[in-house]
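<tokenise_the_fold>
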Amino acid sequence: MYSIEKKEIERFIIKSYRKELWKKFLKAINDFNLIEEGDKILVAISGGKDSILLAKMFEELKKHSIFKFDVCYVSMDPGFTKDNREKLEELCKFLGIDLQIFETDIFEVAEKLAGDYPCYMCARMRRGALYGKAKELGCNKVALGHHMNDVVETTLMNMLYAGTFKTMRPILDSQNFDGLKLIRPMYYIREDDIKRWLKRSDLKALDCACSVTKKRSGNIRYEIKDLVAKLMETNNMAERNILNSAMNINLDSCISWEIDGKKFLLGKEIQE
């Protein structure tokens, strides 16, 4: 079924796409101190291209790292079809990923609670389920496969549709699970480079398997993707500059902001 051997697919990560994938993976880990000695990390696998690459890069890191840490590869079944569940299991078996799967009814519950727009509810429930599993397995970190384009698109979505400047952080503490952190080691990696690796590897990753995606052909995130693509036609630094904007905030030029629950207007704390 697979035309390329597993070892060759792994070599693509650290050789053929070293600059685009492997070096950027290591840079994010080093820049943001995402992994430390003694960590036990749950690597969340959805079966999509991003999480599959994330899992393989963690395997390579385990082989070459100068410090010790543990990893467990976990997939949450939110209500996959039988076909998608089998595809995920087969893919991970071929790639040598020691996958644990636990079942939930999140797709069903999210649609009941949120009606036609369950995506936000679904994402929150999935995150909570992963955190709970991480605690059960004794993990102190959860790694997700969000890449640079996810960060860029989320930043623009918040600006254009929510009127706020919020972005995805490369590392953050869980609000509801003490001692647990979420990390995003693919923070600097472009989605197009992930697609190139997947195509070169001749792998068939799962698309989003939720029923909402099957019912509707577009959403706001697709509009933002198109907008970014249009910007890149005339400014090939557009993606990178949007990413960097969250690292170069000058509060002297801002009108208002919030820190640790405290709100400020023109530098003065607002008393509510």
